[in-house]
Amino acid sequence: MEEKGLATVALSLIREHTAKVKPPRAVYVPFPLGLPVGHPQHAAEQQAVLDLAFSTLDAPSGPVLLDYRDDEAANEAGSPVQASELDPDERARNADFATEVTLMRRYWEQHLAATGRTGVGLSKIPPQRFRGVVRFLEAFVDDPHADSDERPADVPLPLFLRNCIEDLRVMYAEARLQTHPNESSPDRQRWLLGSTALGVMMRKVRDTLETSTDPKLKAVAFGIAR
Amino acid sequence: MPSLDKLSESTRNSALTLPVDINESTPFVLPKKALSASRVAIVTTAGLHRREDRPFTAGDPTYRVIPSETPASQIVQSHTSIGFDRTAVLEDINVVFPIDRLREMVAAGRIGELAPAFYSFMGAQRDMSVIKGQTGPEVAARLLEAAVDVVLLTPT
Asked: Chain-centre distance of CA B37, in angstroms?
């Protein structure tokens, strides 16, 4: 883009990489992966990041690499909690997955009504039919050859599995945002992975995928729980 | 992102094994206009698109066009890596696609105007050859054709 005459300004989440790539103008930010402009609903912080980023346009030459200082952010975990970092608690191990999904859907509907936004939709299955997704996942854990009538014909099984898990993960996250709006993101991640039947199911699906002889199924495992 | 030692082991290993170009030189153009007179576009690798668009898949080198007037409620993310916090964008799209902040800057006269369209690529790429050779230059050409002056690039 710069070679074509477009002045570019980049945000950087991994300073070590940016120092090697040497883009024309960049601002390193100490925020966790996923939020380069700053924390959700922190408009002043986001604007301060953008102000610093656009200030690099005044530089007479490049490469320019500035640092957005935020000592508190620099001490945050840089990436989400993963399944391997905690065990499901007793509640999660004893919870009925289908019942839990139904409950989460109610909270998710409240969140959707309140915000008008949702990230659910990758699987193309409406949440009202997620009980069918539950049955599919439970069947898959018992038999890796299991399939779903709901799978779109043009979506391969490994991708469909991933999309189903993602829709459930997002529905749960949005439900939790509705019931615990002031909870930190790491606490929300620990809740989902450690205190829900979904967290248990994600691990079971991963374990089943890892035993598969199909390399495409095995590859999906790392993207579901690690 | 905090330093690499603050990442989980799996994420740190992924970051350390990502292919990274090591460049000796940097292309650089001086802006032709002040920011307050510039047309600005966002190009992101967050795997964002309109709800009706084809989702990204892993390693997908294509891009999606997001008209700049698209409401946040109609923008979704199909970059489903569990290596980064996806819930932040569920709460506030501005964490990676600062459309509201840029609109405010236009209203305050600090940016000239927004480009008619923004673009999203998919992140976590292992092979950049198609993006470098084809889809990246296509987006650059589209931005030039739209008379964009400044491009804000956001990772995820």
From this structure: 22
Segments making up each domain of chain B, as ranges:
36-154
Could you tell me which of B60, B91, B92 has the C-alpha nearest to residue B78? B60
| Token pair of A217 as six digits | 């199924």
- A165 CA: distance to closest CA in chain B (Å): 10
Q: What is the pLDDT along chain A (226 residues), one digit of tens a residue?
A: 999 899 999 999 999 889 999 999 999 999 998 999 999 999 999 999 999 999 999 999 999 999 999 888 888 888 888 998 999 999 999 999 999 999 999 999 999 999 999 999 999 999 999 999 999 999 999 998 899 999 999 999 989 999 999 999 999 999 999 999 999 999 999 999 999 999 999 999 999 999 888 888 888 888 888 8
* Dihedral class, residue A124 (left if φ above 0, else alpha if ψ from -120 to 50, else beta): left
Give the closest-approach CA distance of A72 to chain B in angstroms: 10
Out of A23, A40, A43, the one facing B88 most closely (by C-beta) is A40
Q: What would you report as the CA-atom Rg of chain B, rounded to the nearest whole angstrom?
A: 16
In B, which residues are within 8 Å of A173 by CB distance? 86-87, 90
CA distance B2 to chain A (A): 5
Q: Report residue B14 as tokens.
A: 């992924």
Question: Mutation test of the interface with chain B: which of A2, A12, A14, choosing the one with the most B Cβ atoms within 10 A?
Answer: A14
Residue of B nearest to A14 (CA): B1
- Token pair belonging to B37: 């007179």
SS3 content of chain A, % helix, strand, coil (to 5): 60, 5, 35
Residues of A with Cβ-Cβ distance to B1 under 8 angstroms:
13-14, 29-33, 78-79
* DSSP code, position A31: S
The Cα–Cα gap between A92 and A95 comes to 5
Contacts of B8 (CB under 8 A, 6+ apart): A77, A79, A80, A81, A82, A85
Residues of A whose CB is below 8 A from B57: 159
Per-residue pLDDT of A24-75, as tens digits, reads 999 999 999 899 999 999 999 999 999 999 999 999 999 999 999 988 888 8
| Model-wide pTM > 0.90 | yes
